[in-house]
Amino acid sequence: MNGFIDIHQHGGPDGDMVRKRTDFELAEAAKKEGMAGIVLKAHTRDTTESAKKINDELGTICYGSLVLNNGIDPDQAERAITSGARLIYFPTINALNHKGSIKITNNGVLIPEAVRVLELTCEQNVPVSTGHSSLEETIALVDKAKEIGTRVIVIHPELALTFVPLEIQKRLAGDGIYFERTFYGLRNPNYPNRDSRSGLFEIDDQALELMVENIRNVGVSSTILSSDLGQPWNVEPVQGFRYFLDLMRKYFDDNEVLQMGRVNPAFALGNVFHFSEKGGK
Ligand SMILES: [Zn+2]
Question: Would you say the pTM of this structure is higher than 0.90?
Answer without folding.
Answer: yes
